[in-house]
Amino acid sequence: LSYYINGREERCRGYDFDHPSTQTLYEAIERCGAPELLLSAYKGRLEYHTPWSSGREYTHLFRGRLDVAVANVLLENKGLSGLKLTDNGIVNTKGSLENLGEVHAYHLLPTEVSKASAISYDRRKRGLAAENVIAIGDSITDAGMAAVVNCFFMVGDNIKSDDLKAERI
C-alpha cells in the first residue's frame, strides 16, 4: 500500500499475506502457485493483461472471462484462501481472447486488500473523517469505496446496473 503525504510517497504492508521482506508481493504470489493454478484452470479464458501486467510489484493482472466467485472458491479449495481474484471491469485490449466477446481485467491480490481498506488507512493516517472524503470509481470492484467515504461517484460505461445492485452500494 502506497500513500502520499505532502508529495512524499510512504509505504506500508496493509495485508497479512506472509512473505520474506526480500520478495515483492508479486513474487510471493507467483511462488505460491496461484497464478499458474488460475491460468491452468481457465486455459483459453484467462491470460496476463499485457503490456500492463509486466513489471508489477503487487498484484497479478489478468484479462479474460470467468466467474470470480467460482475462481475464488478454487483458490480457497487449493489452500490459497489468503488470496482473491477481483473483477476490475471490461477492457478493450483482448489479446488472444477475442473469441470470448466481453473481456474483463482481474487482479490477484491478498484478501484484505481493497481500495476501501486503502482509503480507510489513508484517512486514519491523515486524521480525516469520512464526511471529508470523496471517491471516484469506474469498475464494480470500486463500489466498495462507497462505504468508507461521504460521497462516491461511479463513472464509465462498463458497469451494468445489475452489477451495482449485486454489490449493494
Write up what this structure looks like.
With 169 residues, the protein is α+β, with helices and mostly antiparallel strands. 26% of the residues lie in helices and 24% in strands. The chain is built from 5 helices and 8 strands; from the N terminus they run ββααββαββαββα. The strands form 3 sheets. The protein has a 4-stranded antiparallel sheet. A hairpin with a 2-residue loop joins β1 and β2. The longest helix has 12 residues, at 115-126. It is globular. The two termini are 24 Å apart. The model is unreliable at 165-169 (pLDDT under 50).
Annotation keywords:
169 residues, alpha+beta, 4-stranded antiparallel sheet, 26% helix, 24% strand, globular
Characterize the largest beta sheet: strand count, sense, and whether it forms a barrel. Answer: 4 strands, antiparallel
Strand order of the largest sheet: 3-4-6-5
The succession of helices and strands, N to C, reads EEHHEEHEEHEEH
Helix share, percent:
25-40%
Structural class by SSE content: alpha+beta
Rg over CA atoms, rounded to whole Å, is 17 Å
Strand content: 15-25%
Counting DSSP E segments of at least 2 residues, the number of strands comes to 8
Q: Please state the oligomeric state of the protein chains shown.
A: single chain
Distance between the termini: 24 Å
Shape: globular
Q: Mean pLDDT, nearest integer?
A: 86
Instruction: List the uncertain runs.
Output: 165-169
Give the helix tally: 5
